[in-house]
Amino acid sequence: MTDETLVQLEHAKKSFGDAAVLKDISLSVRKGEVVAVIGPSGGGKSTLLRCCTLLETLDAGRLAFGDLVAAENDGAGRAAYASKDVLKQAKTRFGLVFQNFNLFPHYTVLKNIVDAPIHVLKQPKDQALAHARELLAKMGLDGKEDMVPCELSGGQQQRVSIARALAMDPDVLFFDEPTSALDPELTKDVLKVIRDLAEEDMTMVIVTHEMNFARDVADRIVFMDGGVIVEEGAAADLINHPQHRRTQAFLAKYEED
């Protein structure tokens, strides 16, 4: 891990109608760091991720990816977003893995992975194909190149999703509950892939309900509830010795389950 900050979110606010979902959230992620975001449903975790990956727009706050500023507060305290060109560039800085895979159903596994590098990054086709095959081997998916998603298990589809995100060579990977749609056996395979990426110093932000995984793999854990960061700290410290009563109650409930 280095001191270089790859993601900087400052005083972020987001409401849907009268419901304030993010209330003055600040979060920074350093190069090589793995940050797990935990908390109850409805606490704002997925909205935080969607704002960080430009799928939702902030009402207020600043968002930067390294030296690229995607959003900045204007004079009225509202988030003003950068030009389309800057946002397009910002989108190449991160990858996103969804809980429901979001693969193109009629594309082969290989086409799902190479489509964006060829058309967005303008990589030569041979280079994109070679990299895609390397990534599939890394994901334990040798020989699956010509299959379509419906021919794969959920765990295999999620590993294709991770390969697709990595094919863009992002600075940081965001995961939104990557195992919530999977049964326990398939969950194990996907979590192993993420563990391996952590060992390779891949910068990651992972919204997860897998507490043991968060404790063992993350450098830092952020506990969100009610649209605010209630507590954050070193992973093992926060899981084993939570300081805030809301964190304690949440983790105690997990142990009961």
Q: What would you note in describing this structure?
A:
By secondary structure, the chain is an alpha/beta fold. The protein has a single domain (33-52, 92-256), classed as Rossmann fold (3-Layer(aba) Sandwich), CATH 3.40.50. It is 37% helix and 28% strand. The protein contains nine helices and eleven strands. The protein has helices at 45-52, 84-91, 109-119, 125-138, 154-166, 184-199, 211-217, 235-240, 245-256, and strands spanning 5-16, 19-30, 34-38, 60-65, 68-73, 79-81, 94-97, 172-176, 203-207, 220-225, 228-234. The strands form two sheets. Strands 7-8-9-3-10-11 form a six-stranded mixed beta sheet, sandwiched between helices. A five-stranded antiparallel beta sheet has the order 2-1-4-5-6. Strand 8, helix 6 and strand 9 form a beta-alpha-beta unit. The radius of gyration is 18 Å and the shape is globular. The two termini are 34 Å apart. The model has no long low-confidence stretch (mean pLDDT 93).
